[in-house]
Write a structure and sequence with these properties.
- About 65% of the residues lie in helices and about 10% in strands.
- The longest helix is centred in the last third of the chain and has 37 residues.
- The chain is built from 16 helices and 3 strands.
- The protein has 3 domains: about 35 residues, no CATH class; about 160 residues, Ribonuclease iii, N-terminal Endonuclease Domain, Chain A, CATH 1.10.1520; about 55 residues, Double Stranded RNA Binding Domain.
């Protein structure tokens, strides 16, 4: 076989250990043709601990974009959003930045959009109640759950130490990556695109929050329509120490008690009473 033939088959004929040395740490200026070969990419991902070892980094990122429901015009932004600072510190030539700036932007976008959705969904709620609902929706645990559903764990670009310590399932890292992705969508497609992604991701959870509100609202609507009365919630008693306080509330219509509710706060007790009264009222319809 002539020199041309040998050169054409170099990827197949070089010993495996030599291919690994060519792959190196990604910061030795390896030839692009060799760097992009699927076996080398697969090796690199096995070394970094990615679960989907047979997929290239591009394929993993494309899967994240599909799960997110957004197609990036600048895919590098998606990669930035998945890059933890530990990866950039160890391999600066493979990471133009980490995801912390995008996380900052995504956190602000998420807070603003969720606040708007809650403001529209709960027209009678006071500021304190809206603040608590927003905190529940954008807390680290909720964001980490959504990130897991999107498959962000295997897609994270982590340094070796962070990877070995279980970083791919750390709630803090997952939540940060999700916020960074929202920031990346905003930079890539604008605020409307980012809000559309947030709406899709939080639709089910917002429905759950709205359902919790509906017991009081629906009961009031039914009572006003049938009896032209406005329900009144009256605190009956407060029991227990400060850290385990329990409230009992009576729900009254026309001066008569129709249900009692119990909860860790006065609001929770009122919602409990409303659910019980609503169930009884709807049974009679």
């Amino acid at each position: 076989m002539g020199p041309e033939g040998k050169g054409a088959d170099i990827g197949a004929t070089l010993p495996h250990f030599f291919l690994r040395r060519i792959a190196g740490d990604g910061d030795r200026g390896e030839p692009p043709a060799l760097r992009r070969r699927t076996p080398l990419v697969g090796y690199e991902q096995r070394r970094m601990g990615v679960e989907r070892t047979e997929a290239s980094e591009e394929q993993i990122e494309a899967a994240v974009a599909r799960a997110l429901g957004y197609e990036f015009t600048e895919p590098a932004l998606l990669r930035d959003a998945l890059t933890h600072r530990s990866f950039r510190n160890e391999r600066p030539r493979l990471a133009r930045t980490d995801n912390e700036r995008l996380e900052f932007l995504g956190d602000a976008l998420l807070g603003m959009r969720v606040a708007t959705l809650l403001f529209e969904a709960f027209p009678d709620a006071r500021e304190g109640a809206l603040t608590r609902k927003r905190a529940d929706l954008v807390c680290e645990g909720t964001l980490a759950d959504i990130a897991r559903q999107l498959g962000l764990g295997p897609a994270l670009r982590l340094g070796r130490g962070e990877d070995r310590s279980g970083g791919r399932d750390k709630p803090r890292l997952l939540a940060s990556a999700l916020e960074a992705l929202l920031g990346a969508v905003h930079v890539d497609g604008g605020i409307d695109a980012a809000f559309a992604v947030i709406d899709r991701l939080f639709e089910e959870r917002l429905r759950g929050a709205t359902a919790r509100r509906d017991a009081k609202s629906r009961f009031q609507e039914l009572v006003q329509a049938r009896h032209h009365e406005t329900p009144i919630y009256r605190l009956l008693r407060t029991e227990g120490p400060d850290h385990e306080r329990q409230f009992t509330v009576a729900l009254e219509v026309g001066g008569e008690s129709v249900a009692e509710g119990v909860g860790r706060s006065k609001g929770d007790a009122e919602r409990d009473a409303a659910r019980k009264a609503l169930a009884a009222l709807e049974t009679d319809l």
